Amino acid sequence: MEYPALARESLDRVAASKPLIHQITNVVVTNDSANLTLAFGALPVMAYAPQEAAEMAAISQALVLNIGTLSEEEIAAMLLAGKAAGDKGIPIILDPVGAGATAFRTESALRLLRELPITVLRGNRGEIGALVGSGEVRGVEATGSEDPREVATAARDAFGITVAVTGATDVVAGQETTYLVNNGSPLLAGITGSGCMATATIGIFATAGSDPALQTALGLATYGLAAERAAQGDPGPGTFRARLLDEVAALHSEGTSGVNIVESRES
Amino acid sequence: MEYPALARESLDRVAASKPLIHQITNVVVTNDSANLTLAFGALPVMAYAPQEAAEMAAISQALVLNIGTLSEEEIAAMLLAGKAAGDKGIPIILDPVGAGATAFRTESALRLLRELPITVLRGNRGEIGALVGSGEVRGVEATGSEDPREVATAARDAFGITVAVTGATDVVAGQETTYLVNNGSPLLAGITGSGCMATATIGIFATAGSDPALQTALGLATYGLAAERAAQGDPGPGTFRARLLDEVAALHSEGTSGVNIVESRES
Amino acid sequence: MEYPALARESLDRVAASKPLIHQITNVVVTNDSANLTLAFGALPVMAYAPQEAAEMAAISQALVLNIGTLSEEEIAAMLLAGKAAGDKGIPIILDPVGAGATAFRTESALRLLRELPITVLRGNRGEIGALVGSGEVRGVEATGSEDPREVATAARDAFGITVAVTGATDVVAGQETTYLVNNGSPLLAGITGSGCMATATIGIFATAGSDPALQTALGLATYGLAAERAAQGDPGPGTFRARLLDEVAALHSEGTSGVNIVESRES
Q: Looking at the predicted complex, does its ipTM rise above 0.90?
């Protein structure tokens, strides 16, 4: 099947199953992530307390961990939720926001990768690079000039999991296949949490198929396609942010024919 | 007086008195709740620290407690604020977000109901049902097929307070009168925090009249009327969310003639 | 040079240097502040954990502290970040949200002023007044009838730093010069966090020039000018909020010719 049809199929599965997406995420993007999840037809739940993190994860269909405004207590909740998710075989997506900017973020991300059966790791090339010893980050933005494909491959080999490095072209490095996703818009860089929302999207799509790398590529492409549509007419960031949710919700009626994924088997 | 006129009267009282609405709420909806409060002409204040919760509640005109992203420290703050509010006779509104999904949420909501003089309890039928031993919840969404009217009545009898179960039709069970509120829009289910904003609205309207059940019905109907207007033309969720605030702020000029409440005395 | 040209110059410097603005702010406004920072062409980073606050501040170009939803742990993080910023000579902007409403807020703001080399203090006349023994506050809103100019001057003399008291006219009291900023819109009072965003703007502009009072006046005027443009046609608060970000991002193309600052040397 072609990628646009596969993306459509995943969207339909999400709409039919209304998966519960447990998100332990940062305070900057929590509202946007919840609204994005609803726009995809899935159900968000934000539950951060150690007292309930494992119980909530165990009734969910995916777990999204995001270290954007991390605290010690949140790490404890992530470990509890992640272990429960692992026991149930639920996919876990990790977004190491700002890894490389401070030792606390880098070390916390590495600890989560070590102690939990993470399914997909997503970040910009600076963040992912920092986890494999390269990468330059200022705050939560990638700087430097690493090749995103090399960064993704190095992280995949280091951690043995699917790794998505997002940017102008998103690179998804799976165990056998690497996907290049050409959807998206420069306007995404003008709003906060656009990367975090990409990570939430991966969590949603991970519930709709069994191949993590393929589902990650389909999710990023579909989200990027909605962003392209929202960017038409070059709106300002406040308008773009509202339209992005509109266009995600409109994917069912507007279709996925613009999904642009290029497969690239390792040579 | 007819309900639309009563709703108008409450709006006018809020605009004249600018009540301070102290909200201890979840991180997902805090911005939306604050903006909604301003749109109604009231003043929001979010104060979560145990060191100040009681002092802030004591200078407020209503206290809104929402357990959507609860922590141990937040429960402590809620108990302190609630006791101060009770001592001053200030109405307290409780939103047991996600009760039934985890034991921590169910037990925390029951503890707040037991230890504080809650005035109005508002949730969906799953959440309220969970507090009286029925109810099905996935994350923070109601599933199952309970009759919302039976759930509201059971909770009213169990806790001896006004209970609002919101959904396609909102049911407000007071001690003597039950109100059915027919305002609202299916689009509300497409944005996060629409229930939490309904709860904040109840807190605002509770400052404008002495009958908790009537004020709750008026608040839900007025909020639902603004949602109906915001839903015209079937916008996407990002646009609807912005318009909802616009329409709440426009209630003074647009009026309340669409308020649709049906009274139903117990037989 | 005239003020509009100076404002333009600061905007251009920000766009060229992309300063990292470390913000320890409240949960109500964190998303809006981050989006505003991006709209100005700067990079936001929200980092609240004591484990990383100093490290993040040390790589930033400005530090913005906002006590809107303060906790004990956040005070600890602010002190660590503030000391690191002071060691590096990075400007620190303090927003004492709700000072005067509770003892915890007033005392925490005073402690930060005492222990950290704050560069600019910004609040409404109630909040700033409370820090110098006058001022009336309800929640986070100024009431009472103090003259904002007297409040600003008193606080400048008490703390020996630049003080901005924002309102219908913003007053910026520097060591030698007082600026009156006549930009802005009444619609700003209809959205939450408009004051917090003004504070973030000051942090951004503080990276683009060495005179704190002048940079504060330029920042407030530029932000107010964007608000004036966003207010055209008198939109509701939900639409205004989105347009405000749009207009900030459009400042580069639309220009700063409406910047309206009046200098007033002490007589």
A: yes
